Amino acid sequence: MPPAPQRPEISAATAAALAREHWGLSGQLRELGSYADRNFLIEGEAGERHVLKITAEASEPREVVELQAAALGHLSERASAALVPRVIPSRAGPLLVASADARDQACVLRVLSWLPGQLWSERSAPSAALRRSLGLALAQLDLDLQDFEHPAMQRSFRWNLTTPEWIADELSALEPGRQRERVVDALAQFRARVAPRLSELPHQLIHGDANEHNLVVEGDALCGIFDFGDTLAAPVICELAIALAYAAMVPDPVQACAEICAAYHSRRALSTFELDLLFDLIRARLAVSVVSSALAHAHEPDNRHVVASEAKSWALLGTLTDFGRRAVTKYIAGACGQSAPVPVPGARSRTRLLAQRRVRLSAASSLAYDSPLYIRRGEGTWLFDEHDAAYLDCVNNVAHVGHCHPRVVEAASAQLATLNTNTRYLHEGILAYAERLCATLPEPLSVVFLVCSGSEANELALRIARAHTGGREVVVVDGAYHGNTSTLIDISPYKLRGPGGHAPPPWVHVLDTPDPYSGRHGDDGPAYAAPIIAAAHAARVRGEQLAAFICEPVMACAGQVVPAPGFLEAAYGHARAAGAVCIADEVQVGFGRVGDAMWAFEAEGVVPDILTLGKPIANGHPVGAVVTTPALAASFANGMEYFNTFGGNPVSCAVASAVLEVIADEGLVANARETGAWLRAALRELDDPGVGEVRGRGLFLGVELVADPETKAPDARRARAIVEYARGRHVLLSTDGPARNVVKIKPPMCFGPVEARILVTTLAAALRATS
Ligand SMILES: Cc1ncc(COP(=O)(O)O)c(C=O)c1O
After folding, report:
1. Is 453 in the pocket of ligand 1 (CB under 6 A)?
2. Which numbered atom of ligand 1 lies nearest the CA of 484?
3. Are 311 and 274 in contact (CB under 8 A)?
4. What is the pLDDT of residue 488?
5. DSSP for 413-469?
């Protein structure tokens, strides 16, 4: 948050002298409250009243004061002229610049006409008629400002409702607990639902601060709107959202909103689109208000103006949140004579889908969460349910460049409308993709096979390894998962040791997980690799031969484990010495997820003989890849054709190419590095004895929950409770690791600093709630 403004230090006597000298005004001066300015009421002998406003240039650039004067000048010739103050020019012009304050600061002075009446804030119970009057007045003001232009109207400051994200950095100013979570939720829903659509809303100059201290009333009529200090160009719906964030601080807030909106709508029609975003905009404003108040407590404990409405803001945020967006929006829309917006048409009932699923799909296909989610759309790092409530996706490493990335969608649609066929024809798409992919890889990884899944990639990798070595046996790491085929289940201890599993077949050799936190050899990487020598020997004794050592350079299902230093290098050495080839399974961790490089193996000082890719490769379109060396590819080309009906088709190649382009163009690897580093550090600061370790690389992180930090006994119950708690707060996570006690974090790569702060605050709350 920027520092508190330096209010000009000017005594009433100095102000009186200035008013007399430059405006010819004399009379009694009384200071008026203001957040940033120094304001005086000047009451003349005959009872005429004016306001002298003094603004420090350091806190408000002169062009912004000019903007305000110009807006008032514009309005003086429009229907709402009577509602707003007139600018009384000084002898030198509308504004006067002087080094007038005690600190010799440059100040801008202006005099405005006084609006007679009572402040809205002095009304204990504003009537329905008064609310309607406010709605009409705001609509008129917005209509009158529609054609106003000024070079300074594009303003960036913290009350700009289009940019509330700065509060993500200040969440620690709020007490942990339910209220803070409401602010996080308001921020999240704004970020997900509103921010991407702002540019589609009609923009213009708005007053931008119709709060109860800036509204003048007389009887049941709103007769004045003043303080244009926050005026700015913004979506015009922000005018109403801001006004509602104050005028709805009453016992019947939804009714108040409906009355004001209906009146507003009768003069300036609200579109369904504006109505759909209104609720989230009001809550964003309230979130900014409460965070600002919390920060202001620290800066200016005595400024009553700053903290006046804090408790009421909290109450309104709570009430609106409890009513929920759908109910509030429906009510407001109804009052405006509109039907409620339907952001995601065609939704069915969750219960019916669940029942249907039980009949039509196998129980072996599981659903996430105790209360399964019905997800209808995705955008960036966000998923939206059937009511368009947003969920922060912290776990989908498949939607690598963001859900429904427009460039990916465009690439798929364009190619799908042109050609989709198999690879038995020449096509430039597959070659362009293979070139592009190989350009990111070290030699000799230069021959590409395109398949349809990670499992197919690993199956093919095993076939290549076996064809090249003549061996059959495979060395794997405990906790690993490599795919869903029969062969791959046999080399996936994660599945073999779980429910429905069986002992590994004799041709599979399982190494201990090289986990520096709880592995038996600590961080002695080579010690975990040494048993490969014995495995090779055992195979030879049986007349067999090792074909492959397969391992993820950062282990996912094993619990987001970064292998102990030196493990991969030693393992590759032993495997190759035994005549085996080394397969790096980067189905989960490839394509820059680890942040410091495009490929996770790069940090380990090794180059695999075969690299397998999947999940993120085409942002959810079913693609997998195997990249190997010319020598291994030659061994595999033994006369038997490798045909994959869908693998490498033009649509898949177009999509996969688009993903590589977006990774590069949007700097997603750097984002994984930077956001990931912040996230890791922030998670490590969470003070909870149950957090055994926070680990990972880039945007591939794990939080291991333990029942006892000494014994490191896994606490799966708590890990699960944390994930369920977060799901209840619309933050999607899952558990992993053989004991399912690791909360895993692997969001789309466009996961940014705001999302990271939402996640950390939610995890902190989840830890408190489950301790
Ligand atoms: C490391 C790893 N390898 C391979 C696979 C199999 O990929 P797919 O599900 O696309 O067949 C997975 C899937 O979870 C995986 O995590």
Report:
1. yes
2. 11
3. no
4. 98
5. HHHHTT----TTS--HHHHHHHHHHHTTS-TT--EEEEESSHHHHHHHHHHHHHHHH
Q: Where are the domains of the chain?
A: 1-114, 118-341, 350-359+368-398+668-770
Pocket flag, ligand 1, residue 587 (CB < 6 Å): yes
**pLDDT tens readout for residues 524-564:** 999 999 999 999 999 999 999 999 999 999 999 999 999 99
pLDDT at res. 93 = 82
User: Which ligand 1 atom lies nearest to the CA of residue 483?
Assistant: 6
Query: Rounded to an integer, what is the distance from CA 298 to the centroid of its chain?
Result: 28
Which token pair is 450?
A: 């395109």
Tell me if 19 sits within 8 A of 100, measured CB to CB.
Answer: no
Protein residue whose Cα sits closest to atom 11 of ligand 1 = 455
What's the pTM? 0.94
Domain 350-359+368-398+668-770 falls under CATH 3.40.630.30: no
- State the CATH class of domain 1-114: alpha beta
* Centroid of ligand 1 to alpha carbon of 551 (angstroms): 12
User: Pocket of ligand 1, candidates 366, 474, 588: which has the most ligand atoms within 8 Å of its Cβ, to mutate?
Assistant: 588
User: Could you tell me the distance, in angstroms and rounded to a whole number, from the CA of residue 624 to the centre of ligand 1?
Assistant: 10
Query: Using one digit for the tens of pLDDT, what is the confidence trace for 672-685?
Result: 999 999 999 999 99
Q: Rounded to an integer, what distance in angstroms lies between the CA atom of residue 673 and that of residue 700?
A: 10
E strand segments, 508-665: 508-511, 546-551, 581-585, 610-613, 624-628
If you take atom 9 of ligand 1, which residue's CA is the nearest one? 454
In angstroms, the Cα distances linking 381 to 47, 192, 525 are 60, 8, 35
Q: What is the DSSP string of 228-275?
A: -TT-EEEETHHHHHHHHHHHT-SSSHHHHHHHHHHHHHHHSPPPHHHH
Closest approach atom of ligand 1 to CA 454: 7
Amino acid identity for residue 217 in this structure: V
Under 8 Å between Cβ of 25 and 110: no
What is the fold of 118-341? Aminoglycoside 3'-phosphotransferase; Chain: A, domain 2 (3.90.1200)
